[in-house]
Amino acid sequence: KQEVTQIPAALSVPEGENLVLNCSFTDSAIYNLQWFRQDPGKGLTSLLLIQSSQREQTSGRLNASLDKSSGRSTLYIAASQPGDSATYLCAVRGVRIQGAQKLVFGQGTRLTINP
Amino acid sequence: DAGVIQSPRHEVTEMGQEVTLRCKPISGHDYLFWYRQTMMRGLELLIYFNNNVPIDDSGMPEDRFSAKMPNASFSTLKIQPSEPRDSAVYFCASSLEGKSLLEAFFGQGTRLTVV
What we know:
Low-confidence stretches of chain A: none
Strand content of chain B: over 45%
Largest interface: A-B, 25 and 23 residues
Largest sheet of chain B: 7 strands, mixed
Oligomer: heterodimer
Largest sheet of chain A: 6 strands, mixed
Mean pLDDT of chain A: 92
Strand content of chain A: over 45%
Shape of chain A: globular
Distance between the termini of chain B: 36 Å
Number of strands of chain A: 11
Low-confidence stretches of chain B: none
Number of helices of chain B: 0
Structural class of chain B: mainly beta
Distance between the termini of chain A: 41 Å
Helix content of chain B: under 10%
Radius of gyration of chain A: 14 Å
Order of helices and strands of chain A: EEEEEEEEEEE
């Protein structure tokens, strides 16, 4: 059974810093991995999706990496801003066999950027 | 496209009452997912559909929960009778196979409170 862990559970940093959020998963047989952002009381916004064959994906100040063999992914946020404050969730999708298209989520990292 | 649309946004009901949550997926998407989010358990998959057919309902907690997808543009999640422990945020998500690699898009959620 796939398990996804995110460390740390909460992180508070001053504005302008570069930071890394970590995600680990127990079963390396994944189809892809998706990073989401969730603002308080809101839904999930997709940030980046990495295929199992890829090593990284970039979008603006965000860079996500994937090391499938070690069961790890990181989300790098450059030059953090107060507007980046949110909970960041990592989710893994299993290999494409019957019933495996579902996402398994980590518990999230609650990020606070202090002005 | 307006994205995944859920209704109502908030629902407060008394224990024992029937509750129906509604979801309109993104047009053209062939997968629809129902998730539940609580502080204790995080995001849990309840059930998902492919081309309107339920594929995996192993996450549905009890027989009190049921879900239907009568057509490609509408799904419901029903709880009957509701209990206080059902209080949570319920999310609907949709995705598409092929080039989009099953990237999931979430609705804003329905916050259910059972008193």
